[in-house]
Structures are given as structure tokens and as C-alpha cells.
Design goal:
The chain is an alpha/beta fold and 291 residues long. Helix content is 28%, strand content 30%. It folds into two domains: 89 residues, Alpha-Beta Plaits (2-Layer Sandwich), CATH 3.30.70.120; 155 residues, Rossmann fold (3-Layer(aba) Sandwich), CATH 3.40.50. Strands 8, 9, 10, 11, 12, 13, 14 and 15 form an eight-stranded mixed beta sheet that branches.
């Protein structure tokens, strides 16, 4: 099988990455458009290059023109936007990724660990995860922001809802950190398959219920996690608020910094907000459900 790659030169590479993923890209890679290495960034920072390219890889040629149209419609570059297409011969992308993947630590004890690695710390709480059918390996800033929250809050005994579960990484991390049960919801059947497989690999399949979005309504829970995109988060605000018990927490991600205020406004009728957190150009909005 061949692949098609769209290379996007934009002033907003993270936004281009988001659009490519929502248009069905199997993966998105950011690269330096010039010889401008980033050396020794400050602790905790992962800066991009001054001129960054976003490369979206597609396995279906029929997705290319809709993706082009979405990029031109949504990116504010105007005539300066450049989109190039090339075909790529098939390769074992998972094994190529695994050759370079490293374990990632969140908080004091939570780790996301790809195959071929182990964590030599008896206190470590390890989520075993490789790239697969669905979004979410911990490398994207939005997922990392949610894992940061889980790693620094007490979720022991909590009932959890992971809306837009992707690979299931957040639901799995929550139950490994002591949550009693998690409901993992997604509109994509492949995401539910990936979550079931990853839950089984991590030995927590009996604690995670995987259901489609048609089952989103239900009893309130202690913690709602939703790492999707800003616009659907705003649309879903009444439903996600109803799923959060009084005094419970909500954690929202997939939000560009410029969108955080609008997301907070959508949830303001129900929640008292904590301080936002940022990674690169992405924000996490979280709060506590009030009466």
C-alpha cells in the first residue's frame, strides 16, 4: 500500500497539525524548514523552529483534496500558505517509531512506556502503549497535559469518564492510579478497539467499559476527561457538565491557547476553574463542578 504526504508550510504549524489529524491523517510530523537547530531549550520547554513544516501522512488518496480544502479554509495564512503533495512507498512505520520512542514521565511516578523499554523504579506506575489505530501516545502536548493532571491529583476511588478516548491512554492511566472504574467513549469504532486492546495489555480491561458516543448520557461521575477539540468541547458542555457530579472535576484539552477563553465561557455556568496549564501552544482547562 502506498501513502500520500501533505507538507504544509504555515505560520501556525500546530494548528496545521490539528487540521491534518481531524482530516484523517494517520500521523503528523513537524520538521525544521531551514537549518535552524534548537539547542539546549530551557527546562520543561519544547520550542519549535522559527520555520516549521507539518507533514501529514494519509493512507487514502480520497482524503487529500478534502484535507487541502480544510487547510486553506481554516489556516489564516492566506496566499502565503504552501501545501505540497508527494507519494511515499510503504514502510513499517510502527517499528520505525519504536526505534526512536522513549518512555515519558508525568509527575513523580506515572510513566508511558513503549515496547522494548522498562522502568526500574518499584514505585513507578507504568502505562504500556505503542502507536496503533487511534490517537494518544502521550507525545502530543494535549495528551501530556491531561497525563500531568492525573499524575498530580488524587484519583483513588474515583469513577471516571474518558470522552473521546482515542487509544484509551487517559482511562488506563486513571485506573492504574487508583480509579475504581472508567467509561471510555468515542465516536470512532477503531478507537474503542484500540482502547480494549490497550486495556487488556495493561491488565485493566475489567475496569474499563468501552462504549460508543450514543451511550454518552449516564450517571454523574467523579472525574470527566475530554481531550478532543475546542469546538466539540463547547458543543458538548451541557452534557459533560451533567456527567460531572457536584464537587467532581472536569479536565478539558485539545484546545489552542487562543481558544481557551471560549471554552471556559462555555463551561462557566457549571464550574469553578483551576489555573489553566499550557504546553507549547496548547492549553488545558480544568475545574470543579459547583451546585
Amino acid at each position: 500500500m502506498g501513502w500520500w504526504q501533505l507538507t504544509v508550510a504555515s505560520r501556525y504549524p500546530e494548528f496545521a497539525e490539528e487540521v491534518l489529524l481531524t482530516q484523517g491523517a494517520a500521523s503528523v510530523t513537524l520538521s525544521d524548514a531551514a537549518d535552524d537547530p534548537v539547542l539546549e531549550p530551557a527546562p520543561g520547554q519544547t520550542p519549535l523552529w522559527a520555520h516549521t513544516l507539518a507533514h501529514g501522512l494519509f493512507d487514502d488518496e480520497g482524503l487529500i483534496e478534502p484535507a487541502r480544502a480544510a487547510l486553506r479554509e481554516q489556516l489564516p495564512d492566506g496566499s502565503a500558505l504552501s501545501i505540497e503533495l508527494r507519494t511515499i512507498e510503504d514502510a513499517d512505520w510502527v517499528n520505525a517509531w519504536l526505534q526512536h520512542a522513549q518512555p515519558m514521565q508525568f509527575g513523580a511516578h506515572l510513566w508511558v512506556c513503549p515496547s522494548g523499554h522498562r522502568i526500574d523504579d518499584e514505585r513507578a506506575i507504568v502505562v504500556q502503549l505503542d502507536p496503533g489505530l487511534a490517537f494518544g501516545t502521550g507525545t502530543h502536548p494535549s495528551t501530556a497535559l491531561c497525563l500531568d493532571w492525573l499524575a498530580t491529583h488524587d484519583v483513588a476511588g474515583a469513577q471516571v469518564l474518558d470522552y473521546g478516548c482515542g487509544s484509551g491512554i487517559l482511562a488506563i492511566a486513571a485506573v492504574k492510579l487508583g480509579a475504581t472504574r472508567a467509561s471510555a467513549i468515542d465516536i470512532d469504532p477503531q478507537a474503542l478497539t484500540a482502547t480494549r486492546d490497550n486495556a487488556e495489555r495493561n491488565g485493566v480491561s475489567d475496569l474499563i467499559d468501552c462504549v460508543g458516543a450514543e451511550a454518552a448520557a449516564g450517571a454523574p461521575v467523579d472525574l470527566v476527561l475530554a481531550n478532543i477539540l475546542a469546538r466539540p468541547l463547547m458543543t458538548l458542555a451541557p452534557m459533560l457538565a451533567a456527567r460531572t457530579r457536584i464537587g467532581g472535576h472536569i479536565v478539558l484539552a485539545g484546545i489552542l491557547d487562543a481558544q481557551a477563553q471560549d471554552v471556559r465561557a462555555a463551561y462557566a455556568p457549571w464550574f469553578e476553574f483551576e489555573s489553566d496549564a499550557q504546553r507549547e501552544v496548547w492549553s488545558r482547562v480544568s475545574g470543579v463542578r459547583r451546585r
